[in-house]
Automatic annotation (TrEMBL):
Pfam families: Response_reg. The modification 4-aspartylphosphate is found at D72. It comes from Pseudophaeobacter arcticus. SMART domains: REC. Residues 21-139 form the Response regulatory domain. This is Response regulatory domain-containing protein. Coiled coil: none annotated. Keywords: Phosphoprotein.
Length: 230
């Protein structure tokens, strides 16, 4: 199967010539390191600015234009919602997309953070690079003032899904039909007390390997989305 390359919304956001600048605020060294590693898996062009105090956060904001902030809800003596309000009081971060990250996902915490003005809420324990990528994309597009650009990004997402789905159907349906016919042939031979032709088993094995290789190709195609476009 030849997979035609379709522009993916992530390429327009994370494969730009300039890096995506993300501020990560967490007072736990382990969680801070984990978030940094997950962000590097999202895309190599992500620049992470890690901080564990309000002073460090303000220093980053004083010297760097930030595109998005990942903010821990529980910060020792601090509360993430209070830090959120500090961000909103600064002219340079008043409209900054902020995603709250927490080890807790009770309804009260989620509602409180959204009311405080956060764009989204993520649970630390079940956080993956794919989930983080999706959340970053949604947070950035939701803050875009240009509705046409948001619409075009949405259209690009749909095009990717439809293109892969059609490719999967076209590749898998004939293989599955062959496997079904071959299995039916072997079953009929068994019912009649006959030994099936060994070639039928060989064909089933070949088709299964072809399906396996196809899924490897789809996986490699998906991984290609994270590579910069030149």
């Amino acid at each position: 199967m030849q997979l035609t390359h379709i522009d993916h919304p992530k390429q327009g956001l994370l494969a730009a010539q300039t890096a995506l600048e993300i501020l990560v605020f967490d007072d736990d060294d382990f969680d801070l390191t984990r978030l940094q590693r997950l962000l590097q898996k999202v895309d190599k062009k992500v620049e992470v600015h890690a901080c564990s105090s309000v002073e460090q956060m303000n220093d980053v904001l004083d010297h760097q234009v930030i595109d998005l902030c990942l903010l821990d809800l529980r910060l020792g003596d601090l509360d993430g919602c209070d830090v959120m309000q500090s961000l909103r009081r600064r002219p340079d971060s008043a409209e900054l997309p902020v995603v709250m990250v927490s080890g807790m996902q009770d309804t009260e915490s989620v509602v409180r953070t959204i009311k405080a003005g956060c764009t989204d809420f993520l649970e630390k324990d079940h956080l993956t690079a794919d989930k983080l990528r999706q959340t970053i994309f949604q947070a950035l597009t939701s803050s875009m003032p240009d509705p046409d650009l948001t619409y075009r990004l949405h259209e690009a997402s749909e095009a990717v899904v439809k293109g892969i789905a059609k490719g999967c159907i076209a590749e898998l349906q004939p293989r599955l039909r062959q496997i079904y016919r071959q299995v039916s042939f072997i079953r009929n031979c068994h019912n009649m007390g006959l030994l099936p032709d060994p070639q039928a088993l060989d064909k089933i094995e070949q088709n299964c390997l072809a399906v396996w290789r196809f899924f490897d190709e789809v996986e490699a195609y998906a991984d290609g989305f994270s590579k910069p476009v030149h």
